[in-house]
Amino acid sequence: MEIIINADKRLSAIMGSQNYLPSTKYRKIYYICEAVQDGVVLLYHTLTRQLISLSESEYQEPDDELIRFLVNHWYMIPETVDERSLCYSMMQAFYSRYEPQKSGNSGITGYTIFTTTDCNARCPYCYEIGRPRIAMSNEIALKTAEFIEKNRGNNRVNLSWFGGEPLYNSKVIGVICDYLAARDIPYTSTMISNGFLINQHSAEEILERWKLQRIQITLDGTREAYNNTKKYIYDDENPFERVLQNIEYLTNIKVRVSVRMNISSDNIENLKELVALLSKRFHGNQYFSAYSHPIFNDSGELEKSEYEVLCQACVDIQKMLTEYGISNGGGLHSVKSCHCMADSGKSVCVTPTGMLTLCEHHSDDEFVGSLDTGIIDQNVVDSWKERIEEKEECQTCFYYPMCVKLKKCVTGYECDYGMKVFWEQNMKNSMISSYRSWLRKRNAAEKEVLNTENSEPSNQAAVMAIVSVARKEVGYAVDGNVSKYIVETFRGDRYKPWCMSMINWLFEQCFGAVKARQMLFQVSGFTNYCYMVLEKFQDARRTSGTPQVGDLVFFHINAWTDHVGLVTEIENEQIKVVSGNVRLENGQNGVVELWYSLNDETIVAFGHPDWRVA
Fold first, then answer.
1. 0.85 cut: is pTM over it?
2. CA–CA dist 402, 47 (Å, integer)
3. Which of 88, 188, 477, 579 has its CA at a distance of 20 to 30 angstroms from the CA of residue 126?
4. How far is CA 341 from the centre of its chain?
5. 554: part of which helix (H) or strand (E)?
6. Which H or E element spans position 430?
């Protein structure tokens, strides 16, 4: 038995360990998803969020020690225990402790911005058909930026560009970003787009001005099917190829592209051809992934049985994506106290006219206020938090602890139409992906061939010096976003992501600026973007899955490599890490030293500085 992913620490603090009583009769809890990979049985506990692996013999005939573990970790419960009551009490305790409005971390951090409700395509399934086509003006864009500044608290914000087609009115993206950048307001952005117009924008604009990290682009089939579905307003001979080239362009500049394949009763077989085409073109591209989803709408045109066919088709195509190595994996998500942005209390949608809604599907109704008034209709806000009444079958559903469904949400009743099998397959894919990642990390020392300079012993005096300096910084905290590490490293009072700034500063303090840049492979000058520094270490062949004290550890917290720390101690299967720009309980950003499991799925790689330079 191996623990692949540790249980959620917050829930573990609430649930504790279940006592094992030899005289008690136990049974398997309903809240487990099982998957088999390479002769290993994977068990994912959907309440605790722990993932373990068992050999086939352990699964078939567990010994007393394993049974005790399974009971202690809630995989088995007494026959008389009601799972739903257990889950309800645990989750209520979780919500009361961690719900956003009670966390003390005030402010709106997510902004879905409709640059326009107009579009350059004419997709027949678009839920915005019949709505007014309105473009956001520069004046509204400026008011949007001012609203963000006023309502974000001291937090970093994420901007999600939406439409219509957001690039059909791209000038307002620049207006908003320029305003935020001029005031040192930290932001990143994502986008949902058809991708047709992306090549009109330079890499510098996309990366530096928009700070675009991720984009979703829809492909509904191969060339003929796609072109017939989109019906672009332009006289372009092959829009399909243009969009594929734009996807390549985005991935080349390291923007993550997630292709959504909408499944209808008309395109199932064609999408299978598309999977093969995308695999041939993008296999091995770490910035590309794809997923499938049935088209649900409010028209009620399809019978339940027809939706079930689409859901099964989704499962089949998702399996193909996994086999071809281009699936987005989905991820095994941590516990959350909301369904989506609509009931999060931390997000808002801004329409082209400056009205505020809580759901991107509602650009012309369900208003909660405006840019002028702020959020003022509490009745509408509260209505988005109302959940669907549970059914009897929820009692035995493996997905129950993760299921938060809202009455107003258009996807709230998906399980009535066969989506359960789709969710289960996605979860199994994510379990297998996590297991493979764990295997790679465990076997990194044996599998990875490092060049000769990597095998040279570290300069232990230099390593101990950097660890000592790092530990002295623990406890440093700031209210805003400008730390001393930015000011002293860049000789200027301006915002930079400062977890990497702190690492640069530590090495500069110990070894001087010139040596520090050489040791961190930033000879031409310090950069503060974690993913860029990771790439420099990779180019120098100085990364591996095996840590050493003094290494940089790179984390994948969101959809990219966006955090870094310094390894200060290694014990058994854990590492101790000093890192900066970590949100503290009092709302400040500070430097902390924390333990992490080597199996932590957010760890990307360990970077080995060039200690010979020291």
1. no
2. 7
3. 188
4. 14
5. strand 552-555
6. helix 419-442
